[in-house]
Amino acid sequence: MKGMDCTQVSVALEGHLSESSLRVALGRARAKMGMYDAVDLVVDCMLMHGYDVAARAHFVEWMREHRPRIRRVAVVTDRKLWHMVIRAMAFASGQQMTALSDRSELSGWLSSADAAE
Q: What is the pLDDT of residues 2-11, one digit of tens each?
């Protein structure tokens, strides 16, 4: 049932991310998005230690495809190099993405959307 306001949807990625494991995780996220017009998506990568190039390409394509339903994305990772990769993926997908260094930064990120409304 669409028509509900924005909410937060979270997905956790672990280990070495392959395209197939990313498809499963993003499929769960899409199912959670089902009843909402728009969501804030949180992608927790704190337990991830690597990814395949195909997984990164699929992430960008998925973000581009679902951009109308995703208001913004927070990617949580303490890997500074990945923060640069996240900015590049945001540019490539046209999606607003923010890299956060740890989970404690999420409450500020979430409340910044509430203040903007």
A: 545 568 999 9
Q: SS3 letters for the chain? A: CCCECCEEEEEEEEEEECHHHHHHHHHHHHHHHCCECCEEEEEEEEEEEEECHHHHHHHHHHHHHHHHHEEEEEEECCCHHHHHHHHHHHHHHCCCEEEECCHHHHHHHHHHHHHHC
Which pLDDT tens digit goes with each residue over 49-70? 999 999 999 999 999 999 999 9
Domains (ranges, CATH) in the chain?
7-116 (3.40.50.10600)
Contact 7, 42 (CB under 8 A): no
